[in-house]
Amino acid sequence: MFSVSFGSDNHSGVHPDIWKALLKADEGFAPAYGEDTLTLEVLDKIETLFGENCQACFVMTGTGANVVAIQNLVKSFNAIFCAQTAHINVDECGAVQKFTQARLQVIPTTDGKLTPELIGPYLLNNRDQHHSQGKVVSIAQSTEYGTLYSIEELKILADYTHHQGMLLQIDGARLANAASALNCSLKDITKDIGADIVSFGGTKNGLLFGEALISFRPDLTSDIRFYRKQCTQLYSKMRYISAQFDAYLKNELWRKNASQANAMATLFSRNLLEIPEVELIQPVQVNSLFVKMPGPSIEKLMNKYHFYIWDEAKNVVRLMCSFNTTEKHIVEFISDLKNSLVK
Fold this sequence. Notes:
Layout: H1 16-25, H2 37-50, E1 55-59, H3 62-71, E2 78-83, H4 87-90, H5 95-100, E3 103-107, H6 116-119, E4 133-140, H7 151-163, E5 167-171, H8 175-182, E6 197-201, E7 211-215, H9 224-230, H10 239-249, H11 253-272, E8 279-280, E9 288-292, H12 295-301, E10 308-311, E11 316-320, H13 327-341
Parallel strand pairs: 2-3, 2-4, 4-5, 5-6
Antiparallel strand pairs: 1-7, 6-7, 8-9, 9-11, 10-11
């Protein structure tokens, strides 16, 4: 076990306010499966936060959120467009394909972002009965490369998607980091840009577990509770997810935590840019850094810190900051990095 990990924002612990909320919820008895008063109240708060005429529900995991969301939007003969680096393509063990039986149409990108120009050529197959028919564009905000879609880019993509008769799903595991970085509301980058269904992550930002799903097309997602049950995402003691989100929403704890993680990544990048032997290969916009550094330095640093090698052939590593990353952690890492470069 490492004293400091830059491996993932999943490696951080649980925010103290979340623990307090869990303990408070752990009193007495309450109906199960989301029928308790607290769950109904918190879901109402989320629906108010994201805008009128939306429908919210809770699931347990980020993978579950993507699966449940997309199941509502596709048939087995459909195709789901996503970036090559997308979590649903790389890190979910084929879960979306298993549960939907639809095809992932993977699109290469240099920055993890999809555009109409990148999607367009793949829509040619929609003319032929022999091919999977494109139905969903799935993006992450922020992306797996830590890059951000601007509000204008999101609007353009949503408009294009709808013009093509498709739907836009947003993996929002790090939606809080995106809203913090863009200095906007959650509604600004979801409902207002034309998204059809999104997730609002908590696990990577100080919660013990739990994600929220928000549909802006209740007419298309009326069966969402059944899909949630089928793919084992209906949590019995729902009050424990709801209690966490109640604390998460209070005084915008979600934004406070995300802002801290983003700020530490920005500080990290400034220090790294002062080291000639190091190169940032993606812009640092949220709480992740993709860093090219000498192989021997990577080996030495991994004896003390936990982080992941992103591209072994090019000596690129990913460093993640979280809500409990501190300046001291970064200063120590930078010092050890510099020492590793001394011949």
